[in-house]
Amino acid sequence: MGIKGKVDRMVVMACEECKERNYTTTKNKKNIKERLELNKYCPKCKKHTAHKETK
Prior knowledge:
Number of strands: 4
CATH architecture: Single Sheet
Order of helices and strands: EEEE
Low-confidence stretches: none
Shape: elongated
Structural class: mainly beta
């Protein structure tokens, strides 16, 4: 799947409070080894919360 030589992969972001999967993003797995964590708006919680990369 994807272009040969590309190392960017799609990752799914889940809310830390309600565990709902709200966002998808890409990350370069060669440069960033650890899991991604961003502050995003959760429509279910109706506030900004930390979103972590899921498996």
